[in-house]
Amino acid sequence: MRAIRTGLCAAALLAMPLAISACAGTPSAPSAADWGQPRFAAWQDTDPAYRFFPGDSLDVTVHSAPELSRTVAIGPDGRVSLPLLGNVMVAAQTDYEIANTLADAYARDILVSPIIEVRRAALGPQNIIVGGEVNNPGLVELTGPVGALEAILMAGGFQNSAARGDVVVLRRQPGGALMMRTVNLHDALRGRQGADSIQIRRHDIIFVPRSTVAEVSVFVEQYVAGVLPLDQAFSYAIADAITNN
Hints:
The protein has 245 residues and is an alpha+beta fold. It folds into 2 domains: 2-15 and 50-122, wza like fold, CATH 3.30.1950; 125-243, Outer membrane lipoprotein wza fold like (Roll). Helices cover 19% and strands 23% of the residues. The chain has 5 helices and 12 strands. A 5-stranded mixed sheet has the order 9-8-12-10-11, sandwiched between helices. A hairpin with a 7-residue loop joins strand 1 and strand 2.
């Protein structure tokens, strides 16, 4: 358990991150210079600490004032409502960061050296977006760990025009930079072990080009470029745009 508090060393239990495997093998990451704008950040296989979004629920324990402890849901605006505090913005923060945020808020004329523990209670929809040459492009809700091929099958499968060997996965870094890697799903469809090694995460975007991976630049410029790290509202907006265009 990790501890947090204001002014002293305090405690906050880190919630278990989503079970996500590191990607095996060497990703095929063509040089961004070959495609012009936009330029992509280097792909990172490491699993970052889980960040909470609207729809997730938290167990908040105030050890120095147990009567203030609550299980709370993060609202559509990214805030939680807690006794004596009102609404506090916590979206896109880790459990450790949320504990710090709440401890600082309670320390302002409410509690002396509050000790806050934050744990994950439940997760909201784990949505991803699948676009391009698939039969049902748009928002896909994950029900468990999936790879890129499974995600595409959940979106109705490939169209005949799909470039199955150059499927693109787009992912935001915590700071907002867009990462990209390609997956050869021809090999996965042939049953080759390890061919679909990437595990899809919440808010990933999967794009199936028509003929060449360079088409991803047009897709990113049209729907993704310049957007801050994905949240639930943007997921629905981009899915609607993909589905209706």
